Amino acid sequence: MSDYILRDWQPCDDNALKALWKTCFGDPDDYIESFFDLFPRQDACVVAEAEGKPVSAMYILPGQRLFPYRKKSLTAGYAYALATLPEYRSRGIGRAVYKAVSDKILQTADAACVLPAEQALYPFYENASGAQPLSYVREARITKADLSGITPSMGARFPTLEYQAVRSQILSGLPYALLPEEFYELMESSGVEFFVLEHGVAAAETSHGVCRILELLDPDTDGMSSIAGVARWCPAEEYIVRSPLFFDGPGEMRPYMLGALKEKPSFPMTNDLWWGLGMD
């Protein structure tokens, strides 16, 4: 007999869920509060309860739309922030929670998407729901020395709403994911900065000497001058840069977003779909 039950979120869960999040991820309280303020839990959170308390949970972030082929689109939900208390791990609880979340998403959307926090977790999600890579990324690690001698692109910080608009213009007609406004608000609250550059846009966050350029959209160059431009605003020893496969840029291709589909689409799915701003 199972020693836990799966159930939907209840309003009385929030304090326990915030503590669970803090234990598992260590995020600042302000970020956790921002998440709980921005995203509803009603019908959008699955909880595993054991011994009368939540011991594992995962959330559904709604409102994404995938454009994998010209103007064809799929609705999607994002399975986010799977957390299980350390003493309840290795019992299959987290796997069951994620599978329940994926199934719940597919009741109303075409695709259930998930972004594993690290490469070692991809098999876990693939095996739990049959999810397969829907989005790939080009990723590079660039040192401060690598940028020496490169003329930086002119750039400036950009308001979030304007960033969204320019991003959509750059990606129009290409395979990409349209993300809801709440995504940008949450990322901004966690310290992500948005930039407009000579040839595109970028979103970046800097911590402990590393700048993560989460999204570099630079359609007209190889990206290095834009990275140097971001570096003027975000000085760091190392830059981890993600860019879409359909633009030139540094780095190697790797899987990014996984997705379980409700049914096989009637149009081709390409491997260069750009999800971009993942909250991993």
Features:
7 helices; 27% helix; alpha+beta; 280 residues; seven-stranded mixed sheet; 15 strands
* Major sheet: 8 strands, mixed
| Gross morphology | globular
Structural class: alpha+beta
- Average per-residue pLDDT, rounded, comes to 93
Ranges where pLDDT stays below 50 over 5 or more residues in a row are none
Radius of gyration from CA coordinates: 19 Å
Q: What is the N-to-C succession of helices and strands?
A: EHHEEEHEHEEEHEHEEEHEEE
List the total number of helices. Answer: 7
Task: Report how far the terminal alpha carbons are from each other.
Answer: 34 Å
Oligomer: single chain
Helix content percent band:
25-40%
Count of beta strands: 15
Furnish the topology, listing elements before pairings.
Blueprint: E1 5-8, H1 14-25, H2 29-38, E2 45-50, E3 53-69, E4 72-84, H3 93-106, E5 111-114, H4 122-129, E6 132-133, E7 136-143, E8 155-157, H5 160-171, E9 176-178, H6 181-189, E10 193-197, E11 201-207, E12 210-217, H7 224-233, E13 238-243, E14 252-255, E15 258-261
Parallel strand pairs: 4-5, 12-13
Antiparallel strand pairs: 1-2, 2-3, 3-4, 3-9, 5-15, 6-15, 7-13, 7-14, 8-10, 10-11, 11-12
3D structure, described in words:
The mean pLDDT is 93. The strands form two sheets. Strands 1, 2, 3, 4, 5, 6, 9 and 15 form an eight-stranded mixed beta sheet that branches. α1 (14-25) crosses α2 (29-38), α2 runs antiparallel to α6 (181-189) and α3 crosses α4. This protein has helices at residues 14-25, 29-38, 93-106, 122-129, 160-171, 181-189, 224-233, and strands spanning 5-8, 45-50, 53-69, 72-84, 111-114, 132-133, 136-143, 155-157, 176-178, 193-197, 201-207, 210-217, 238-243, 252-255, 258-261. α7 links the parallel β12 (210-217) and β13 (238-243). The chain has 280 residues and is α+β, with helices and mostly antiparallel strands.
